[in-house]
Amino acid sequence: MNAPFKNLIAGEWVEGNSVNPNINPSNTKDVVGEYVRASKAQAEEAIAAAKAAFPAWSRSTPQERYEILKKASDEILARKDELGRLLSREEGKTLAEGVGETVRAGQIFAFFAGECLRLAGEKLASVRPGVEVDMTREPVGVVGMITPWNFPIAIPSWKIAPALAYGNTVVIKPADLVPGCSWAIVDILHRAGLPKGVLNLVMGRGSEVGQVILEHKDVDAITFTGSVPTGRKVAAAAIGGSRMKKLQLEMGGKNPLVVLDDADLKVAVEVAVNGAFFSTGQRCTASSRLIVQDGIHDKFVEACVERMKGLVIDDALKAGTHIGPVVDQSQLDNDLKYIAIAKEEGARLAFGGELLNRETPGFYLQPALFTETTNSMRISREEVFGPVANVIRVKSYDEALAIANDTEFGLSAGICTSSLKYATHFKRNSEAGMIMVNLPTAGVDYHVPFGGRKGSSYGPREQGAYAREFYTTVKTAYTFAG
Ligand code: UN1
């Protein structure tokens, strides 16, 4: 298809009402492609198409759904290098990360292809004589999806794949910054044979297209991944008035990584640097609070700084780059704002935090590590969403756990230790949805539940078989069999 890339509504590629140039953050002179923005009226047409397609799709056979999702998986995996490159070009994570995320998307479609065939119900004897009770799962209806820019292919995939597998129809609005990967996924599924209207793509701005999806009476469920402030607005719009939509929100994190005196120093440094700075720190699962025990603190900080000095921050598409640019100017401004705030609050900048010049104009930032910070500083409490982490020194495991839990977030939490006792205690007592022992807080498996507690998440988990909680609704049927 020739540029500009269009929206898919009711099985047709349609023009929008304006064009959005998709800019490469590694080289702002490079336009990845031109993507149309939908009008509000088009968002309404997409919802109507999804509603019209629902009765037939919800009754399609598991085999039909399996074949389409499997075909999509096969194509994504076959095109992993090309799609991974598109991802890295539009979002700025390294090519290895972009290809890795694309493979994950392919694996997600394969997993949910299998789930089409595995959706089971339950049958119980009733407490009344001669009565049987069946519990079955049915699709929810039209699912509206609003996806963020930081995982341009994985997040749309882990929302679209289960939605379709369980028989829902979809209207998706990807992040305006990175429409390319969602466009590619929708194109692949469309060609894989999805009936018209089952999956509709409306690219554009949240304030326009997103708002229509959130408020429309014919959208039955909303799944959103993004920031806490936007998540709160999404909840108000989706539930407010008489709307009461089913809702799933994945929002921010201020994820702790505890490093105890008995940790393997090499492992702890790799886990911390990967979790804090890879993917340019732009992960809701990033380790942003490094809570380090006294006895290992100085060695750990020194080794982290040495490791950071060896990181290559450059064009995401260049071989040898470890960390790509920040996604855009406004995110870069936000990162620099927090670096300034941390300094003002009295934190010590152990390394980094400077803007870097590279061959091409891009948003290059040296990852920043702060020490001598407390858990009450803003740098410890507010999500930066960039390559910025701070070290909090603690005396004991108990103090570390208390600080790890002292946050309004609860997505992911890690501990580096060689002690089974502390690892086990941490798994039991951490107030996060995902716990990592001697592993980075970011970078999760695709076949198990993903999600958090407290301010990080709302509603049922995403991914793995648990995704059915959001994408299906339970029906309890009673039969008097005589
Ligand atoms: C991961 O760490 O592997 O937006 C996934 C995010 C998360 C996904 C993280 N929803 O960063």
TrEMBL record:
The active site is at 250. Residues 13-476 form the Aldehyde dehydrogenase domain. Signal peptide: none annotated. It comes from the Bacteria. GO terms for molecular function: oxidoreductase activity, acting on the aldehyde or oxo group of donors, NAD or NADP as acceptor. The keyword Zinc does not apply. CDD domains: ALDH_KGSADH-YcbD. Keywords: Oxidation, Oxidoreductase. The keyword Iron does not apply. Belongs to the aldehyde dehydrogenase family. This is Aldehyde dehydrogenase family protein. It comes from Alsobacter soli.
